[in-house]
Amino acid sequence: WKIGYGAVATMGVNYSSAQFRLITQYPIRAVCFDNEPEAQKRGNQLCDDLSIFPGETINVRLESGKDWGEASKKEVGKLRERFLGFI
Question: pTM for the whole thing?
């Protein structure tokens, strides 16, 4: 919700096969799970699984908070511009 238009969420570190198939359709995929070790492990696994599909998959680790809700507006703006093309 903080990211806004153009972003999607798995609503946790678990995701369905239908969600996975939908994610593969995006040409640029930025995976950003919470900074806890288990969440990062799941994010890395999702990136590995997505890497075989056409496009680019990037694992993003937030610097200013443990999750998007805590991330600074400045960091959110930079990531929106980088991956979505606008702030």
Answer: 0.84
Give the sign of the dihedral formed by CA 77, CA 81, CA 85, CA 86.
positive
Q: What angle do CA 58, 27, 69 make, to 5 degrees?
A: 50
For 67, counting Cβ atoms within 10 Å of its Cβ (0-12 exposed, 13-18 middle, 19+ buried), the class is: middle
d(CA 39, CA 22) in angstroms, rounded, equals 20
DSSP 59: E
What contacts 82, CB < 8 A, 6 or more positions away? none
Residue 7 has a pLDDT of: 81
41: left (phi over 0), alpha (psi -120 to 50) or beta: alpha
Neighbouring C-beta atoms of residue 43, cutoff 10 Å: 20
